[in-house]
Batch of 2 targets.
Target 1
Amino acid sequence: MTSAIDTLLSILDLETLETDLFRGMSPQDGWQRVFGGQVIGQALVAASRTVEAERSAHSLHCYFMRPGDPKTPIIYEVDRLRNGRSFSTRRVLGIQHGKAIFNMAASFHKKEEGLSHQIELPDIPGPEDLPSEEEVYESYVAKAPDNIKAYFRRERPIELRPINMEHYVTRKKLEPQQLIWVRTTSKLPDDPAIHKCALAYASDMTLLDTSLFAHGLSVFSKTISAASLDHAMWFHGDFRADEWLLYCQDSPWAGGGRGFNRGSLYRRDGTLVASAAQEGLIREIDR
């Protein structure tokens, strides 16, 4: 198990302070603000701990209200809004320095049979046919600006294998779409709730960037102030976050300093297991 996965599991292992009250820590890796995926994952852990074991998360809707301070613990307060016959609803508030920085509503569902259909997996190369992160660094990132190089040098708990790397090495305006294989860098415990929390963490990676493709920019661009504003996710089927999942992303709209992005996550056998949507700040700034 890599040290990055150890860190991920440790930040998802919240400390219980009191009934429905939890404390989460952030990794001390030099970031000026807390990664949004971390807060989503921790909030989902907090909500999951207040729900019966046979009910699993099927959707979550989040708002990021203030930047998180990585030097300070985040307190997660869970409100048990409803326990119905099939669904349980929770609200989670993330608090730092006495102020709310994050809000999430999550719903949990008791598994049942029903009508079924899905959009098919696109026909694209498998992850073993694409360069590894080390090969990507040698071929592309070594020639990139220092801030991009620093990002790719950092050990992360999520491995990414993009189908196309052009976005990272050119200012060319591209279609606002991307396909990326994702998985954790080593095995996770078998608890399905941990895999959902890990995927919630990973779902915030690269998604906002999609809205910048059409403008020849990225979240690394020094002329852009970028941040997640809200994030929603739906879980459709069983999966393991430590096995390859294809993250299909597109951005149908951007305007007014905001970009809207969508994502679909497929297992290798073609099963659609999760969907995500996010609106983010993509404000142009003067330098």
Note: The helical segments are 3-12, 36-48, 133-139, 146-153, 166-169, 192-203.
Target 2
Amino acid sequence: MEVTSLREPKMADRVATVLRRMFIRGEIPEGTMLPPESELMERFGVSRPTLREAFRVLESESLIEVQRGVRGGARVTRPRRETLARYAGLILEYEGVTVKDVYDARVAIETPMVAELARTRNPAAIAELERIVEQESQIRPGSDEAVDQLTDFHAAVARLCDNQTLQMISAMLHHIIEKANRSLQPTKGDRAEQAARRSAETHRMVLDLIKAGDVEKATELWRKHLQKGEEYVLSGAELSTVVDLLE
């Protein structure tokens, strides 16, 4: 049997892989403090720098939180969907992907979600959307909070669908679109107020169609709503890229 000698960085990756597998399988539950460094170094047969490099990998993946100091240590944490959104956003930024591309992807993903909500008419999902629509009726168009509140309905559509993979992809896109909504569209003035009112009214209409179980009309109205929203936000900014949202 041939054995390839392991360099320190490679060994750190292997330590991280073993610990990651134990976290995901639930062998080390969320919230657990890992044993002291000296004990882990002995168990894995590695040096302190190698173990700390493994910790840095796991910390970057939101799988542990490292607390410094005499009474510090590494605590197991649950990976957050926001981490996925942040890293995916960085890749889109690096690749020079346009914001329009992101909006088009949202149409492709969210439209079937609305269809599924209308098809199933889940009482809990409808109650959640009712709560959001009621909150939207209380917002003041043109206020700083209006843009964020009007995106809550979109986030809920994704959150309430049964497919968890689609939920995560949608959350990633939502993270980017929230930035676009704040930086590329006007938030003050008559045009912004009219757009906010139209959005709130459309959300109510879509909810009524979902409650009625009218899959076809709910789907078509939601598709038009997303397309109109894209046209409004990207008016004059069709070639903006995701990286532009950082400026």
Note: The beta strands are 64-67, 73-76.
